[in-house]
Amino acid sequence: MSNLSYANENTNAWQTYLAQIDRVAPYLGDLTPYLDTLKRPKRALIVDVPIVMDDGSIQHFEGYRVQHNLSRGPGKGGIRYHPSVDLNEVMALSAWMTIKTAVLNLPFGGAKGGVRVDPRKLSTRELERLTRRFTTEISPIIGPQKDIPAPDVGTNPNIMGWMMDTYSTGQGHTVTGVVTGKPVHLGGSLGRVRATGRGVFVTGVEAAKKIGLSLEGSKVVVQGFGNVGSEAAYLFNQAGAKVVAVQDHTGTIFAANGLDVKALQKYVAEHQGVAGFSDAEAIDNEAMWDLDMDIFVPAALEGQITVARAERLTAKMVLEGANGPTYPEADDALIARGVTIVPDVICNAGGVTVSYFEWVQDMASYFWSEDEINERLDKLMINAVADVWNTATEKGCSLRTAAYILACERILKARKERGIFPG
After folding, report:
1. What pLDDT does 302 receive?
2. So what's the pLDDT on residue 193?
3. Residue 362 lies in a domain
4. In this structure, is the dihedral angle defined by the CA atoms of residues 408, 414, 417 and 423, taken in order, positive or negative?
5. In terms of domains, do 164 and 201 share one?
6. Per-residue CA distances from 326 to 12, 85, 89, 200, 313 (Å)
7. CA distance 173 to 5
8. In the prediction, which pLDDT does 11 show?
9. Is residue 13 part of a domain?
């Protein structure tokens, strides 16, 4: 297991999601009887993925695709390649996608997929074989009007390109809209790779205004330095904040006067991790939780902020770049201390928002400039933060509960008005 792992080996992401849903029940009025709809995935597929390895041996990997709720449109959600992937995790991630798309008012439901594998241990050819076989196994339930995968932890645009090609081969014609997050020359959207990190930054800026926190000179700590964490760190740095520490699967680095984020991005691209970066000192992973900081960005795995860690965090604001990084009890501990938490379902929704833009562009075969993409993204994210903040103020609840209230109202109204077949 890598240095950056779950805080507790018994992490139950699905139970975390259910606890979050239960907190919404008192606010839903006549929609409450429909709440159980969101406690059960609509469809879960488990597949065996056998591939021939480069040495001629055959290995089997377990894959999943879960469609949590499709009341508001086709499923939308990433594909994760990671050694810890299991059905429990994928169910929770699909459910959070249901909430996320509804909070942003996108015409999608929630889905998620994954394969239990360490992609770093596969050659490029083995990774392609795995992707193509997995795509074939889940192809009966995906499609541009059914369920649209995208990249997640351990996957990237190239993998999405293989998925699109494999699905298209089965259909007999090119179907660009079956996945998003593709290379631009295969129907991908400009701005997609950096969209999630940009969304973290944009929501962070809006929340900072609300609580009177100046970004100039503020201290930022980032956990996870992939697409999300690195882009968020770069944008905060550009806005005058100091990124004083970064943690990833290789370790934790610290620089009291701030890291050179651009140089760190280049270093990580060459060395696949932050460990060994010369312009910083290495510190113990657990010591990160005690650092002096204003903003904490968990952008790695779920299940990172426990109650014990929450009580140690000095941050004024937590921006959830990862899905489900905070346990419900830790949520309560942070709120009791006056910490503002911008929840994952809006904070990291930049990725799915630009995925929506990509899907729209693919369906229309008409593509926008990156400036247009960023302008549309920023507008949707700013509006979502305002909606959630106003709901939290009106209901006297946390931002997370407010986001769930908005999302659940939209989803359950759709469910109610569609009715249940057969009647």
Report:
1. 82
2. 86
3. no
4. negative
5. no
6. 12, 18, 14, 16, 12
7. 41
8. 52
9. no
Verify that 324 and 208 share a domain, yes or no: yes
Give Cα separations from 216 to 137, 374, 376 (angstroms).
50, 23, 26
Contact present, 216 and 297 (Cβ < 8 Å): no
One domain for residues 239 and 201: yes
Domain CATH for 264: 3.40.50.720
Answer with the one of 347, 374, 390 that is the final residue of a domain.
Answer: 347
- Residues 212, 246, single domain; the answer is yes
The list of the chain residues with pLDDT below 70 reads 1-11
The domain of 324 spans: 195-347
Domain contains 374: no
Q: Label each residue of the chain as H, E or C.
A: CCCCCCCCCCCCHHHHHHHHHHCCHHHCHHHHHHHHHHHCCCEEEEEEEEEECCCCCEEEEEEEEEEEECCCCCEEEEEEEECCCCHHHHHHHHHHHHHHHHHCCCCCEEEEEEEECCHHHCCHHHHHHHHHHHHHHHHHHCECCCEEEEECCCCCHHHHHHHHHHHHHHHCCCCHHHCCCCCHHHCCCCCCCCHHHHHHHHHHHHHHHHHCCCCCCCEEEEECCCHHHHHHHHHHHHCCCEEEEEEECCEEEECCCCCCHHHHHHHHHHHCCCCCCCCCEEECHHHHHHCCCCEEEECCCCCCECHHHHHHCCCCEEECCCCCCECHHHHHHHHHCCCEEECHHHHCCHHHHHHHHHHHHHHHCCCCCHHHHHHHHHHHHHHHHHHHHHHHHHHCCCHHHHHHHHHHHHHHHHHHHHCCCCC
Domain boundary among 347, 362, 381: 347
100 part of the active site: no
User: What total of structural domains would you count in the chain?
Assistant: 2
What's the token pair of residue 403?
A: 């986001």
Predicted pLDDT at 7:
42
Instruction: With beta carbons less than 8 A apart as the criterion, state whether 227 and 197 touch.
Output: yes
Residue 90 belongs to some domain of the structure: yes
Could you say which of 76, 112, 182, 242 is catalytic? 112
Token readout for 139 is 């192809």
